[in-house]
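Colleagues,

Please find the record for the two-part complex below.
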Amino acid sequence: MSTLTDPPKEQFRLSMLLYDTRYRSATIQVIAMFGFMLLAAWLINNTLSNLAAQDKAFDFGFFTESAGYDINQRLLDYTSRDSHLRAALMGLLNTLVVAVLGCITATILGVVIGVLRLSSNWLIARLMTIYVEMFRNVPVLLWIVFVMAILIETLPAPRAFRGENPEATMSLADSVAVTNRGVYIPEPLFTRSLGDVHLFGTSSLRFDVSLDLMVILAVLGLSLWGAHRVTLRANRIQEATGERPRTWHTRTGIIVVPTLLVLTALGFHLGYPELKGFNFQGGTHLRNSLIALWLALSLYTAAFIAEIVRAGIMAISKGQTEAAAALGLRSNRIMRLVVLPQALRVIIPPLISNYLNLTKNSSLAIAVGYMDITGTLGGITMNQTGRELECVLLLMLVYLAISLSISAVMNWYNEAVKLKER
Amino acid sequence: MSGTHSHTVAFVRDTMLPQQEPPASEVGAIGWARHNLFSNWFNAILTLASLAAIYFVLAAVIPWILSPTWDGTSLSNCRETLAAAGHGDAHGACWGVIKERWLQLIFGFYPSHLYWRPIAAFVLLGVALAPVLFSDKVPSKLLIFSVLYPFIFPWLLWGGTIWLPIAALAGFVIGGVLFKLLAEQVSTLVGIIVAVAAAVVWWLFLAAPVAAALDAILPIGIEAVESRKFGGFMLSVTIGVVAIACSLPIGIVLALGRQSDLMIVKYICVGFIEFIRGVPLITLLFVASTLLNIFMPPGTNFDIILRVLIMVTLFAAAYMAEVVRGGLAALPRGQYEGADSLGLDYWQAQRLIIMPQALKISIPGIVSTFIGVFKDTTLVSIIGLLDPLGLSNAIRADANWNGIVWELYGFIALMFFVFCFSMSRYSMYLERKLQTGHR
């Protein structure tokens, strides 16, 4: 009697781990994992034995010790008696300040230069090409020290502002003093201030929130929302009747008037810098190191952004421009309404990586003595405490966190503006 | 129709008019200027403003550059020369510093009687690169030299016994021979694993003693130069060239790993790439200067330049991997399927079909990564190596040249500009040469 049987079960042989593609990938993975673990174990073992030999343990206890050094450019209050953690926090805030300021100016400059490089004006286009090549082909560190040197060497010293006939005068109606120690600008002051809210008590992470600022921001936010409602209403009327009511005066009023009222109620005025003794007092002091870093990073990154913008605009087919021209749009409207919105889709992904680059390049602050996180945590704190492993590790994690957040935010924005397809 | 025509047209010219020159305002320099500089009032304003800006910049810079101070021996000497020549006191460059120190800016503190060695190394670098860069003009037999060159280059620069580079080369030979034998006899996978393991064991444990033993028997070598004597553009170019050369293969492997279906391999590669790309180079250089010795077996103390080279290479490799991945992603799926249908295995397909196309697509990105790496070599001045920027501080510490800023920075910037600009032009040439599409 013949019965239908399954084909003979294939016996598993050891050689199938090598020759059978079904098993081979698993073999490779296991070997890769094994090699990786071996490497990691070797490194960690070495580290532990080296640390033991140097009589150090891996701990972050040094963070609560007093830092003992001063940070001259800072956003929050800090004294040299504060802890290393607070110093690192000041550094982090300084990094963020430079990164945000730099990204904004680099974007504006980059878009302008990129558009001008495509200009029909031969001279302008060549000048912009020279700018781009000049900045792209010279190291950013050189630009930073170069700008710093320009600020120190060419600007007048504070004592030049003294005397009956001073060599230098303050600009913008005596409100801004540009000196070789930095720029002094007016600071906002409130006579009827609501005071501050102190968060986190007196710990290292203490943070003062100015109630004045909160109130102003809240009012401004509400006004902007109101102005948005006016625009929506105008859109509805336009769709219903075909005529768009004139809204700009209502919108300006809604935005400006409440803010002005709040400012007056709080007694807003500007504190001007004044020359007292050897230096300026009052006002906000932007140090040379901050300005040099900000300026150099913006100019350098702008050259890259300009190229991205140019490539993005050139990627839009000429037919789009021609069609828009046929509709009777003027050239700046063609750029703003037709070309740039489409070019943005090409521009944004590389723009994200340029923002990341700018943020990472801000770590070069250490070359001009701006106390960013590399200068505090990776510089003085590391040298004072001798905790290289902990400091460098933390420094890397901080930058990693900043990079990942920037790319997350920008990718979300990219999702929002990209072409909606099926 | 012809009837109506004869009624409406009173006169028809029966001879052609001779062709006329276009009006004078439309041709030549005037026409060009009208079209390109003054096409409307806004462009005219822009043109005039930029002309004014160019004038002011040139009027300030050119007299400064054309200052007769090439023989100055110190800053005060330069000022005297300038005053005697009728320049303003501060207005004029002091080029004496470049004339006196340019050898130092190029070679650092490398012993002057051994300058021929870095020069030879970089001339030979050109010879080694020629068959790669200009493959259509140079005989391909020179490629053998290109393969051997990575072992000659460090020997020429650092000197010492010749057995060390030979021992390093032997590791590759051992790995290659083992791979060849096992790949034919057993399987490619076993071949790769055993070959890599054997080479690593050789380098870690055997190479140094064997080289030392051979050196004791047959001492052949040239004068050794310590790393701390390295400096100037020589150091920048050394770090740049090594990082570029080593990062390309590592980057390709990382990119393939990231594209692969093997989950664990993929995540190891992704983790490495994203970590390196997320941190600034300066933190990696801190690792090189302070931490790398902690990660090594106790008692290891290897050279600072070698440590920097390792970290800069890893840094460049992560960026290279992303560029190559872009090239791989741009290849149409059909290329992979075509390779499969020809029965090629993974490595054959990569070597013969995928990689040549992917690399060609990614040439602009690869070259900009090269340029970026070369520019980033200036960062080593922050951890105390004497690259040109570090040397400029050392030169300013000299009492004679205290206060010299613009000349040094200008010279360094010019040198970097020349290097980087020629690299970018070369990449354009390469793109045109490899352009196979027909437009």
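Chain A touches chain B through 57 residues (CB under 8 Å).

Comments are welcome before we finalize the supplementary table.
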